[in-house]
Amino acid sequence: MASLKLKIKKVVFKRKIEGATVTGYVGRCITNGTATFEDILKQSCKGSTLDYREAELAAKMLIDGISENLKNGKIVDLGVLGKLYPAVNNVAIVKHTVNRSALKRICRRRTVFRKCLSDFNIIFKRIFNFGN
Hints:
Shape: flat
């Protein structure tokens, strides 16, 4: 079973509340590097009969299906992990010319991830033996 190996550092936290500056400390996680797509696939295939290339193909097909549904305006439900929502950012650009200024709006697509707290916390605690 996996064990959680995180380091926490204490960071000064400042916030203005009703004109007064309130300071305190907040715990921040120190990361242990970045896991690439290939690293995750290799770890997923360990101890199973699934080949690395088969896992890569399945993961790419899943990502293609998710992106296609997001492009079609659908919400993608990832179960206990949460949901992916299609969204747009509206950016206004003002172009000044000699005679007039023109306002141009550009819409940029983006994806919003909202995690499902209730189910995810239960599974996370079971995996890492929290709250015993």
